[in-house]
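Write out the 3D structure for:
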Amino acid sequence: MQSVVVSPLVAERQRQTWTAIHHAAASAALESGPDAVTVAQIAAEAGISPRTFFNYFETKEDAIIGVRPPSVSDETLRAFRDNTGMTPVLRVSHLVADVAASTIGPGVDLVQRRRLAVAYPRLRTRLTQVFTDSRKHVASRLVEDVETPWLGIESLPTDLHQARALILLAGAVVTLAWTTDPDHFNTHRAAALETAIDTFRKVTSTTL
């Protein structure tokens, strides 16, 4: 399938529209709660039609928390390939964290998002699902649906079950690091991941 080339002007217009929809949805949810917010209300506030809304978001919940589908960019792949000094778990943990970060759209206030997630369990559940989708996307793009797993990096397991286990472990590492201290994770991710891995190392050394 031939890729669609989007001009910088169109791309910027799309970014602005995405951000306007998200800000309108988040503001309405903070004021009235997600249940009271409608797509029509969000669209009107953002200056678009309800039909245009669904070109950018599948649900009002996604608009409220500001999420996009996970993706693996060329920059992410380069960083993954270049992280040669890391252990396999740390290397894949950074990859999972990068792909999870790709779901955060432009202009998303992460502090505000956490407030909404704490206040409304349905939004928290959706964020958990987004992270799960990110981890599955890594498995699909780097292991399950490719001829050469892990871009041919020899230090990583090519056995499918072992590769899946490594991705699951990396996902658990990222989850522990983020839930322990989201602010520290966002500002000092490498250190947060190292600390989480050390915790898993201590637990497994005494329980497995």
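The mean pLDDT is 94.
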